[in-house]
Amino acid sequence: MNSFDYIRPDSVSEAVRTLAAQDAVAIAGGHTLIPAMKQRLNRPRIVVDLGGLAELKGIRKESGAIVIGAGATHAEVASNADVKAAIPALGKLAGGIGDPQVRNRGTIGGSVANNDPAADYPAAVLGLGATVVTNKRQIEADKFFRGLFSTALDKGEIIVAIRFPIPERAGYEKFEQRASRYCLVSVFVAKTKGGMFSGGDVRVAVSGAGANGIFRVPQMEQPLKASFAPDALRGIAVPAAGLVTDMHGSAEYRAALIPVLAERALEQA
C-alpha cells in the first residue's frame, strides 16, 4: 500500500471540495477501497473519510418513501423499524450482506457508488425505482447504473441519500457465493402503489448475472403486471447471451437461476 494523505472533513461541502483534487478518493466503510489499495490497484494521493459526516446518517419515512442516508450501515438498514415495516424485502437484503463485521462497517452509499456487479443493493435500487440523491442533483435508478463499476456520478460528486418509494409488495431472493456471500445471482421484484415508477408499475431487477452489471427483465415485468404471482412466470426463460460465465457458474446456469429466484421472490412478496 502506497503512502497517502488522510482527511476527515467536517461537512459534505468540505468533502466535495477535497475530492475535487487530483487523485482523491472517498472512503466510507472501506470494504472495497482498502483491499484495492493493498493490492495497489488503486493508489490515491488523498483519502477522504466520509464516516464521520452526520449529514449522511439517518433513516426516515417521508411522503411515501423510505429515505436512507448514504452513511447508514447495512446493519442499520436491516434493523430499522421503518424499513422492516414499509419495505421488508430491503431489510432482508441488507441483513444478508457479508458477515456481521461487514454489515456493521459497510454503508449503503459506498455499495451503490461502487456498483459491484455482484453486490446486493443495486438490485433494490433498480428494482424499487429508487432515486439517488447526491450533493448536487437527484438521479433516477434507471439512469444511475452504467455498467460494471460505473455510475452516473461525476468527479467529486457523492451520494447523500437514497430515496426508496414504498411499494405495494416486494421480494428479494439471492443465490450467493458461499465464501464471500456476494450474489451469484439475485432477483428483486416490486409492485408499486399506483404506478410511481417510470417504466410501469412492476419491476424485476437482477444482480450478479449480467456481463454489464445490474439489469431489468422486461419479459418478466409484462406478465407480472397482469398477475403479480409466481405462476405468471411459468415457462418464461431468460437468454444466456449477455450473462457472465466464471469459475462460480456458467451463463446458462445463471440464466436458469433467474426465473427460479424470481418466483421465490414473488412468493415472499
Mean pLDDT: 94
Number of strands: 12
Q: How many separate structural domains?
A: 2
CA-based gyration radius: 18 Å
> What share of the residues does DSSP label as strand, in percent?
15-25%
Description:
The structure is a single chain. With 269 residues, this protein is α+β, with helices and mostly antiparallel strands. The chain folds into two domains: 5-54, Uridine Diphospho-n-acetylenolpyruvylglucosamine Reductase, domain 2, CATH 3.30.43; 57-268, Uridine Diphospho-n-acetylenolpyruvylglucosamine Reductase, domain 3. The protein is built from eleven helices and twelve strands. It has helices spanning 12-19, 33-38, 74-79, 81-86, 88-95, 100-105, 108-114, 121-127, 141-144, 218-226, 251-268, and strands at residues 5-7, 24-27, 46-49, 59-62, 65-69, 131-134, 138-140, 159-165, 169-176, 183-191, 202-207, 215-216. The strands form three sheets. The protein has a five-stranded antiparallel sheet. Strands 9-10-11-12 form a four-stranded antiparallel sheet, sandwiched between helices. A three-stranded parallel sheet has the order 1-3-2, covered by helices on one side. The longest helix is centred in the C-terminal third of the chain and has 18 residues, at 251-268. The chain starts with a strand and ends with a helix. The model is unreliable at 195-200 (pLDDT under 50).
